[in-house]
Design goal:
single chain, 66 residues, alpha+beta, two-stranded parallel sheet, 2 strands, 15% strand
């Protein structure tokens, strides 16, 4: 039996006081083929650094979209 995995993006906001970086890295390390990236923001990367955040999402979707 083979198991297929969906493309996964793990994004860490490095200034988020609620999510430890080690947790995000662990998650990325344990999802086969996961892409990991860090953004120097707090809880709202789409507000604090919208261009960078959008760029990460668009690049991921471009690589893995139909």
């Amino acid at each position: 039996m083979t198991c297929a995995y969906a493309p996964s993006a793990v994004r860490l906001t490095t200034l988020d006081a609620l999510v430890l970086p080690a947790n995000s890295r662990y998650l990325a390390d344990h999802i086969p083929g996961a892409e990991y990236a860090e953004v120097a923001t707090g809880r709202l990367p789409m507000v604090e650094r919208p261009r960078e955040w959008r760029g990460l999402i668009e690049a991921f979707l471009t690589r893995h979209g139909p």
